[in-house]
Prior knowledge:
By secondary structure, the chain is α+β, with helices and mostly antiparallel strands. The strands form 2 sheets. The protein has a 3-stranded antiparallel sheet, covered by helices on one side. A two-stranded antiparallel sheet has the order 1-2. It is built from 1 helix and 5 strands.
Amino acid sequence: MDAKARIHPKSRSINARRLSPGEEDTKVRRVRDPHAPEQLHVCFNCSSELVYPLDWSEEDARHWRVVLRCPECEARREGVFDQDTVERLDDELDRGSGALLADLRRMTHANMSEEIEFFARALEADVITPADF
């Protein structure tokens, strides 16, 4: 297997992987509409929707250099993207953060409810003493 970083004509770095003779690519990839706006949160390698920025810096007034990482397959890429594309990534990151916080709240509530039930049963059974505090 031969892996190389290639520079896209529009200054985007693309990690390309060449399969060895006889090696099959077993990963299924979604085909992206070439006219659809680029979705930076989607991995170019495995199509995971969990890609996040490791670093970003302003290139000029309307462009950003962004280093992206996929936690599923460890693919990384760096490129210069226009403001609208980076704003879509930022919106997607906000949406993902909101979903994580909602899950955290639900889990915290479930755990606290379980702790309260356990404590109430212990009080009813009279197995809590001042020494427990």
